Amino acid sequence: MTTRHVLSSSMHRLALGAAVALMALSLSGCAGQQSRKELTTGSISKLSKPVQSMTASELAAATESIGQAYERNPKDREAGLDYANLLRMTGRNEQALAVMQQVAINHPTDREVLGAYGKAQAAAGQLEQALATIGRAQTPDRPDWKLKSAEGAVLDQLGRSAEARLRYREALDLRPNEPSILSNLGMSYLLTKDLRTAETYLKSAAGQPGADSSIRQNLALAVGLQGRFQEAETIARQELTAEQAEANVAYLRSMLSQQGAWKQLAKADDAN
């Protein structure tokens, strides 16, 4: 059985849902990859370890700590940005949006704040509003690659893939070989079921300096959807602790398990 036959219509629907979820994750950082690294500096330097290496319980504790700092001074720009970012990372998108609304009220012309507000809107499902907010943050004379990529991710979720890919390529002109942009571009092709092209871009993204675990998860998904079960698992486990690797594999399996699709893919892989 060929991979093309294995990928049923239900699998295609699953791919679309998974891609939207994963791009929302990228968008929530976008600074994304950048933001996670920056969370260990400045007002969050008090954290005991980098955010990307924290367990779920450690991340929850960090969110509570930064939340208390924000509550003490809701007009503190850095505390608000950091708190909203951590809230999005823990899936609390509506609360993150509420925080960013307040930060934007207090800093209405701040470009970084407007960009973060747009990302919070997108993560909460307010896609048209997010496009407008990100557009206000962008300036033609000093275009920001992070905002271009964020705009592309929103356009993809609206089904406007051609416009989205134009934004990603504009972002790459500003920031060549940036892994988060290449990953978003790959996920754009995954959304339109062009799995081979998606894999090409995601492999390129995963091979760049600074590529993180979320990019490898995207690549694992693209490989798994083509029926290469063992290869997908190997990618999902790379460069992680045993606990993180198992969590990645569990997530990958959940994305591919609808209506027995995981078993179909495993059988197809064994037959190759």
UniProtKB/TrEMBL annotation:
UniProt key word Signal: yes
Keyword terms, alphabetized: Signal
Protein name: Tetratricopeptide repeat protein
Native source organism of the sequence: Sinorhizobium numidicum
Cited InterPro entries: TPR-like_helical_dom_sf, UCP035836
Pfam hit, one: TPR_19
UniProt signal peptide: 1-31
SUPFAM superfamilies: TPR-like
Gene3D superfamilies linked: Tetratricopeptide repeat domain
